[in-house]
Amino acid sequence: MVRFWGQLYVINYAVGIVTGIVMEFQFGLSWSGLTHYAGNVFGASLAVETIVAFFVESTFLGLWIFGWNRFNRWAHLAMIWVVTLTAYLSAYWILVSNGFLNNPVGHREEGGKLVLADAGALLTNPSALLAFGHIVAGALLTAGFFMAGVSAYHLFRRTPQWRLFGSGLRTGMFLSLPALFVTAAFGGVQLSSLKTLQPMKSAVFSQKTAEIAQIQADMVTRFGPGDYVPSEAWTRGGGIVMMLSFALMMYLVVPGVVLAFFRTAVHRFRAWHVVLIASMPLPYLAMISGWVFREAGRQPWVVYGLLKTEDAVSGLSPGAMRASLITFTTLFALLAAVNIWLLVRCARRGPVEDGLGHDDRAHDDTARPLAAPSY
Fold first, then answer.
1. pLDDT tens-digit series, residues 247-257
2. What is the pTM of this model?
3. Which of 130, 134, 179, 219 could pair with 140 in a Cys bridge, judged by C-beta atoms 3.0 to 4.6 Å apart?
4. What is the secondary structure of 92-149 as a DSSP string?
5. Is residue 275 domain-resident?
6. Residue ranges making up the domain that contains 158
């Protein structure tokens, strides 16, 4: 089980590294106004994420991949736990940056630029902490649906490794239930906090016309003429799609957990297997639409109340910016397609002897006996 699911994780991780590099280029090329104005504050947490969390995470993942059959099982297990914990640490630092954009705290302005004034306020920003809990639980929910769906595919096909995939289906179901409720709880608290942190987004999502007009008038008074109402299609649409996805997952997870207690249902209920396979995109849809709601809803601001989108982009011609957007969108789409193709290909193959953790020395009569390596 560890070798099979670990190989799928490594594929996702490798593509994730490439998307991160592309995003760094996008920051530098397209958002010079943002980095010049607020980079001293929100850029610091991104740097910490890269230096502390990402390098530690990738180093121990490399040791876990290539240290198979070279370390004892407890040391090998400890390595993947370091990878897991530093992955969550990476998410926290990224959300510290994103939380600052949505609710700028802990800063002061010097020479027309923002500088860090209160690190504690930045690290405990409610916009970051609530989003962190939401994202962590959402990631576990996504993993649960992924495991259950892949396992259901192999159980439907009567793959010989029925014990492995029966355990995988149960694990996915039993993980998804608490993850779903925790995700929904943090999401609900975030929605409530919007009334204070981003009242315009809350009003647009709730379709309160009179409140939208009042907030628009107040913002014109504070910040000058302009349209401070975000796109209802993206903001409200993203929020509705997210909630519908959660509702569908709820209807699938609760009875699914009950069915998972019965061995016959796990291995032979083929209609349920089809439903689990078809439901695999739901957590991804919820995640993407949730991010659309979060990011589109704060427009026209990049740093809420401090820096508008029109001032944050690089000083390039509209044609150059449009070409940049098309290029980066195409790159991300291609990376997503490659990721999906690799995951589907390896998931359909199932466990193979030459996969992750395979040791050629075990099949080589001339190989030296396995022993602790000397360094």
1. 999 999 999 99
2. 0.89
3. 179
4. HHHHHHHHHHHS--SEEEETTEEEES-HHHHHT-HHHHHHHHHHHHHHHHHHHHHHHH
5. yes
6. 126-220+239-290
Is the pLDDT confidence value at 369 over 60?
A: no
State the total domains in the chain: 1
pLDDT score of 316: 81
Instruction: Give the per-residue pLDDT at 220.
Output: 95
User: Distance between CA 181 and CA 212 in Å, rounded?
Assistant: 31
Cβ(169)–Cβ(266) below 8 Å: yes
Report the distance separating Cα 201 and Cα 300, nearest Å: 11
Residue 136 forms part of a structural domain: yes
3-state SS class at 302: strand
368 has a pLDDT exceeding 60: no
Which ranges of 119-231 would DSSP assign to H, the alpha helix?
119-123, 126-156, 162-197, 199-206, 209-223
DSSP state of 49: I
pLDDT of residue 347: 93
User: What confidence score (pLDDT) does residue 373 get?
Assistant: 36
The total of other beta-carbon atoms located within 10 Å of residue 236's CB is 19
The per-residue pLDDT for range 60-74, each reduced to its tens digit, is 999 999 988 889 989
The answer to whether residue 167 sits within a structural domain is: yes
How far apart are alpha carbons 132 and 115 in whole angstroms? 24
Closest-CA residue to 49 (of 83, 82, 87) = 87
3-class SS at 229? coil
CB 95 within 8 A of CB 135: yes
Which pair of tokens denotes residue 348? 């359909």
Q: Could you write out the DSSP letters of every residue in 65-90?
A: HHTTTTS-HHHHHHHHHHHHHHHHHH
